[in-house]
Amino acid sequence: MKYGILLVSLLISFLAFSSAGSSFAQENATTVPAALPGADSGMSVATSEPDVLWLWGDVVSVDTDKNEIVVKYLDYESDTEKEITVGVNDKTVYENIKFLGELKAQDTVSIDYSAADGKNTAKNISVEKPEGMEPAKEEAATNETPDVQAVPLPSVTPPEAKSDEAVKSQPPAQP
C-alpha cells in the first residue's frame, strides 16, 4: 500500500513539473514589421545606411582619375573568381598605404564597402604587406657602420685554476 501511494505521488509530481516546464519555455509571439515603403533591401531600417560588405582579393587595376579600383576575388557562394569595381571617396580609410595612387595591380587587399544605388563605395582599404618586407631603415640605407668602442673585460681566473691552498684559506660561507 505504501508503495502504491508513493508511486501515485511521484507520477502526479512528474506530470506537474513536466507540464510546468514546457509552459515556461514558450515565448510570446512577436510580429516583425514589414519593410518600410521605398526602403532598399540593402539598407538597414534602423540607421538608413547601407550595410557594410567585405571582400578580400587581388587588385586588377587602379583608375586614379575615376577614383576606382577593380579587384579579383573568390565568390564563396558560387566558388568562382569574380571581379568587382569599388569606388573611393574622401571618407575612405587606408591601411598600409596613404592614398589611392600607392595601390598597384596584384596588391592583396581587404576592403570594407557599401553597395547603394548600384555603386560600391569603399569605407576601408587595407593592403596586406608580405612578411619580411619591412621598409629599410635609414641606417641601413646609408650603409654607415656605427662607432663601437671595445671595452676590455677584467681578467677572471677560472675556479679550476685556483690552488687548493687558496680555496682552503677562504672562510666557509654563512647559511
Task: Give an overview in words.
Strand 5 and strand 6 (119-128) form a beta hairpin. With 175 residues, the protein is an alpha+beta fold. The chain has helices spanning 2-25, 138-142, 164-169, and strands spanning 52-63, 68-75, 80-87, 93-95, 108-116, 119-128. The chain contains three helices and six strands. The radius of gyration is 37 Å and the shape is flat.
Please describe the topology of this protein.
Layout: H1 2-25, E1 52-63, E2 68-75, E3 80-87, E4 93-95, E5 108-116, E6 119-128, H2 138-142, H3 164-169
Parallel strand pairs: 4-6
Antiparallel strand pairs: 1-2, 1-5, 2-3, 5-6
> Low-confidence stretches at least 5 residues in length (pLDDT < 50)?
29-41, 137-141
CATH-derived topology of the domain at 52-128: OB fold (Dihydrolipoamide Acetyltransferase, E2P)
Number of helices: 3
Main structural class:
alpha+beta
The overall pLDDT, averaged over residues, is 75
Strand order of the largest sheet: 3-2-1-5-6-4
- Strand fraction: 25-35%
- State the shape: flat
Largest sheet: 6 strands, mixed
Through-space gap between termini:
80 Å
The total of beta strands comes to 6
Percentage of residues in helical conformation: 10-25%
> Mind telling me the C-alpha Rg?
37 Å
Q: CATH homologous superfamily name of the domain at 52-128?
A: Copper binding periplasmic protein CusF
Identify the CATH class of the domain at 52-128: Mainly Beta
Which H/E pattern describes the elements? Answer: HEEEEEEHH
Name of the CATH architecture of the domain at 52-128: Beta Barrel
